[in-house]
Amino acid sequence: MNNDQQIIAELKDEATRQAAFRQLVGLYKERLYWHIRKILLCHEDTDDVLQNTFIKVWRNIDSFREESGLFTWLFRIATNEALTFLNQKKKKTFTGGDETTAYLIENLQTDPYFDGNEIQYRLQKAIAMLPEKQRLVFNMRYFDEIKYQDMEEILGTSAGALKASYHHAVKKIEEHLKSEE
């Protein structure tokens, strides 16, 4: 039994659930935080979505069928929570995609926790300008180094479509960075 299987078994047992949940949070909190942060680009929003992610995990662990790995399941929940948050924000605040891009770039510019240099800022700005799916795929592949097979399960899309999205994202980022030189 690997570590994830043991954690799942302990989460499903009332006697060990709380200790196992603390262990799960300790193991995955940082990776999930940065995954969500790359989607939202705002520390406060990321904290809220991360909390919602772990609440959803707590409430749904008994229905986890273990058809995918624990990591994949957690990332799928975190991704869906982040996208739901962003879509709710769009409905309340924005009328179009350009406004969403402007919102993400503003989050990047005003984020007191962003400590990158000018090159990192330009890269993050170029990523923020990508369509949502390309932005997700690029971040998951480039920064999180998630395999296409795992991304298929997390995003519910074929590896071929994911590879195409990544390729298009890279080209758009390169073009944007060259245009700013």
UniProtKB/TrEMBL annotation:
Domain of life: Bacteria
RNA polymerase sigma factor 70 region 4 type domain sequence ranges: 122-173
Keywords: DNA-binding, Sigma factor, Transcription, Transcription regulation
Alphabetical list of InterPro entries matching this protein: RNA_pol_sigma-70-like (IPR039425), RNA_pol_sigma-70_dom (IPR014284), RNA_pol_sigma70_ECF_CS (IPR000838), RNA_pol_sigma70_r2 (IPR007627), RNA_pol_sigma70_r4_t2 (IPR013249), RNA_pol_sigma_r2 (IPR013325), RNA_pol_sigma_r3/r4-like (IPR013324), WH-like_DNA-bd_sf (IPR036388)
Residues covered by the RNA polymerase sigma-70 region domain: 24-90
Pfam families xref list: Sigma70_r2, Sigma70_r4_2
GO molecular function, one term: sigma factor activity
Single GO biological process annotation from the record: DNA-templated transcription initiation
Family label: Belongs to the sigma-70 factor family. ECF subfamily.
PANTHER family: RNA POLYMERASE ECF-TYPE SIGMA FACTO, RNA POLYMERASE SIGMA FACTOR
Protein's name according to its UniProt entry: RNA polymerase sigma factor
Organism, scientific name: Sunxiuqinia elliptica
Lineage: Bacteria, Pseudomonadati, Bacteroidota, Bacteroidia, Marinilabiliales
